Write the structure tokens for this entry.
Amino acid sequence: MEDLFIKETPTTPEVAFKVEDGIFEIKGVSIPEDTEDFYNPLLYHIEEFLTKHNPTKVTLALKLIYVNTSTSGMIGKIIKLLENTASLEQEIIVQWFYETEDEDMKDLGEDFHSFSTLKFEMIPCEEIS
């Protein structure tokens, strides 16, 4: 399985899936015109990685600046996929980065954490870059 990299656009985030490291990073603004068209291949990639490679540790690093409602739904699907597909031996960590002054993104991360059994790390930062 190969790494996956998608360059950021004005409406879609940068995606960097590093298979060997077990790190899935989604960073930037996410307001795609067709959210499912953008995120469904990511869901497939994550599911294939979990089932075929059986990694011991997986990190989902979410460094989102702004998202629309449909993106929130897809992020929820990614978190649920990780939760439902991972084996008991796998360590799954969700890192939710948010800018310290952005209460909305902090609250969104806390909302996702509240419905998930995965380990969540809320990480404040001055600026997401």
